[in-house]
Amino acid sequence: VMDCCLSFLWYFIPLVLLIHFVCFIVADADFTLLRASLIGHKPEAKLKGLVVWITGASSGIGEELAYQLAKCGSRLILSARREEELNRVKCHCLENSSLKDEDILVLPLDLLETTSHEHKTKTVIQHFGHIDVLINNGGRSQRSLFLETSVEVYRALMELNFLGTVSITKQVLPHMTQRGRGSVVTVSSIVGLAGAPLSTGYSASKHALQGFFNSLRTELTDFPKILISTVCPGPVQSQIVSNAFTEELSKPVALAGSQEHKMPTSRCVHLMLVGIANGVKEMWIAQQPFLSMYYAWQYAPTFAWAITNMMGRKRVQNFKAGLDADSAYFTKPKTS
């Protein structure tokens, strides 16, 4: 029996590694998510009629989530600080789906105002009766060097991206445990798995989210029908860079840069919904060469460090030369 098991492992392990290698060469999602998209449940079937609360729904990934979930027939709570933008998103959802006005609740929300989160959650439950899915998407990024960045920026990143997300989850999760089912989906980042220069505070906040929700998932083993899922996108076409923190709280980003090399938001969101519909606990979503770095960090961290240092040096050099941090990977540094 032992010989049979060893023979099985001898062939099985290389086969799994080969499949993963092929997937990261040709795909834009991890093997588990790719498999779910090919043979798993379809979002439009699994998510129809569910009550989904989206934070950060006024732009970027959150806005696209609203549009695709509306087409799936999900009932929506749209939250962000800018109510006028939320109303714009709601109108677009109603125009392009079969949802009625009462199926979409616009609920302005500031993640920093944690004392309001209990009341906001009660408002949602009063309107819909329950919450099936919470998508923690709200937050801000960062573009600045640590040596030049105020500690207040780091405090703001942690309070918004980490503590704000923990706070709203704290209000919603007891409702889900009482019902015995539900999903908490949190948008982390590729830098929640591996750090990146110019994003030290942002990366720290996403690492914190990864650690928190990985630990929370284990605490909820008595609730097998509650999904705790984290999404780790690479660069995606959105306004996140334009709204990023810099070295000072009130200083805007000077250059947002090109979006051409980034994954289309629609593709990222489609893969997210596939993952939610199929109960995927962690989703890796990125175009190449970013996706390959996920695998390098997973299977060959020493090699990953070498590549990260090489690319990070170029990223910093181009940033100092006045180029956009993201597109800097695909451009030559300016010369005097």
UniProtKB/TrEMBL annotation:
Q: Which Pfam families match?
A: adh_short (PF00106)
Classification via CDD domains: 11beta-HSD1_like_SDR_c
Q: Where are the transmembrane segments?
A: 6-27
Q: Which GO terms describe its molecular function?
A: oxidoreductase activity
Q: PROSITE patterns given for it?
A: ADH_SHORT
Q: Which UniProt keywords apply?
A: Membrane, Oxidoreductase, Transmembrane, Transmembrane helix
List the InterPro entries hit by this protein, alphabetically.
NAD(P)-bd_dom_sf, Sc_DH/Rdtase_CS, SDR_fam, SDR_family_member_7
Asked if Oxidoreductase is a keyword of the record, the answer is yes
Its family remark reads:
Belongs to the short-chain dehydrogenases/reductases (SDR) family.
**What name does this protein carry?**
Dehydrogenase/reductase (SDR family) member 7
Q: Which organism is it from?
A: Nothobranchius furzeri (Turquoise killifish)
Its organism's taxonomic lineage begins at: Eukaryota, Metazoa, Chordata, Craniata, Vertebrata
